[in-house]
User: Fold this.
Amino acid sequence: MSRIAPLELLVDLSIAVCRGDWDALLALRAVRPPDRRFREALLQLHLFVGFPQVVEAFGRLERAGGVGAPSPEESELEPDLPDRGRELFRRIYGDHAARVEQALGSHPQLHGWVLGHAYGRVLTRGGLATFERELLAVTALCLRGPARQLASHLRGALACGATRAELEELLTLLEGRLGPTAEHLSAARQALERLPLEPEAS
Assistant:
């Protein structure tokens, strides 16, 4: 059974928010009442489109009836978790992790925010499997780029349990949504072709 099919609504959610297509976003809310998976996919998008776009999305949904009541576990505020983030970072980047982490060293706050917040607090949250979060990251990056981060999260999806067939299925789905000539979608296919057949050991 395909693991991409259950993600289609969240893929469409990501596309709508990336594009600022608020009518499409509200139509998705009408298809199925928002649950935790919906909320987690929406929260995660601030890493790729920024807080203003996500705040706007939540506001539009709130005026249309809200996003449902978060559970106590979902609502618990966590601190930044750099150790947990570094573990996922190394899983995603494998043998390249040290070099990529060094590239974040231009400013200590950037390094801390990426490891502690993006990887340690957001991408390792519950509510979605890690491979699902990576597939949704690929979705957002297919719309917004940049190509280097897109390639990294394609690699990350494989490292976190997605298969190449699932990545191909996702890119085919996105081609249907975005059109075959979408700039970053073409970059995604090229990056996937360059990845090793098996994820690199971390």
Notes: The chain has a mean pLDDT of 93. DSSP finds 13 helices and no strands in the chain. Residues 4 and 166 are 7 Å apart (CA to CA). Residues 108-122 form the longest helix (15 residues).
